[in-house]
Sequence to fold (313 residues):
Amino acid sequence: MFWADRIADQIRERKPKDGKAFLVRDEKTMSGRPHVGSMRSVAVHGTVTEALNDLGASAHFVFELNDFDPLDSIPGFLPEEKFKEYLGKPLFTVPSPEPGFANYAEFFGQEYIGVHKKAGFVAEYYRATELYRSGKMDSYIKTALTRAADVRRILKEISGSEKDDTWLPISVVCEKCGKMMTARTYDFDGETVAYACDKNPDDIKSCGHSGRVSPFGGGGKLFWKIDWAAKWGAVGVDVEGGGKDHSTKGGARDVANHIAKEIFNIEPPFDTPYEFFLIGGKKMSTSKGRGVSANGMSELFPSQVFRLVLIGK
Fold:
């Protein structure tokens, strides 16, 4: 039996009673040119969606282009002098490497969508900023901030990550320098969070500004393990997997599962852990520019051969 049919059979047992279509979700942070290894996730989710539909269980594949994470490093193929000032800023505020695109994330996102199409995978696309600005994440943000102590407890119990008593599970953009990696949040009063731009991660300098901002309507972004769980509820996800490193005990999926159940009171979606495509025995990296690009590989092979490489195992 083809692996996707086997997984689809397992998913069908969880069919919602209201008869709605299964929603299969995937996402990629647009921090650089996606490597071919990132297509493993697209292939798994896209093929499972096709298998569900082939078996008569209606399914819909949605894909998030994450444009709300910060630019944390500059890929080697881009000029450092041009992009250094944007380190730490959200991707949607970073200029496109080439003219004709709204921002950095859109430039790489449009190229990535083209690769999906070449491999024959069909998805509905949305941006992380659209999801946050729409207000669909607001109730999850409020719950996470109100129950920040419980979030800190779960992180410690499940992954061993300890946070101080002022830590909040959200990132905001500094109103003065526009960076989010340097802004430390604390003190949620029900409407706003206080922040201080005083962190200096990876030699990204902070400006020292402090203030209060609303975390709602796109004013803030949940840290990713909490963000992952919140999106399952906000988008209505039935199926979403991740790389095998996330699926280990104490890994990101384990943390997100506990956050979903204990904080947001939602059932985690069906999980489909998968292996990686490696280069030199190591994971490829989009932000570091390590690995063969997905676009380059898609141009090297005919579409059907490229697809077969992705879904063969």
In short: The mean pLDDT is 93.
